[in-house]
Amino acid sequence: EYLFLNYRGEQITSRSIQRIFEMFRKFLKLERKITPHKIRHSFATHMLNQGADLRIVQELLGHKTLASTEKYTHVSLEDLARMCDNIHPLKKIVE
Predict the structure, then answer these.
(1) Number of domains making up the chain
(2) A GO molecular-function term, please (predicted)?
(3) Are 79 and 49 in contact (CB under 8 A)?
(4) What is the pLDDT of residues 36-94, one digit of tens each?
(5) Residue 77, helix vs strand vs coil
(6) 85 with 75, same domain?
């Protein structure tokens, strides 16, 4: 069974979904192009930023390899800084 169906009850095509996104982007007068692919990237990144395991994200995205999932994820500078602050050896001395 398909999750998204068109008005005839048939599988909706990826091109139809892209057209729907573009229609809403224009309606909302958004300058940045929003695509299903970008939302997929954002989903993966937000999941990891909230502490999800990379393997869980891999399963949710339906990837066979972790390497594929890693391409979809983006680490923010804030997360990098926080990690460095937490593991830096001087942190224990300062506290």
Answers:
(1) 2
(2) DNA binding
(3) yes
(4) 888 988 899 889 888 888 899 999 999 999 998 888 777 767 777 777 777 776 665 65
(5) helix
(6) yes
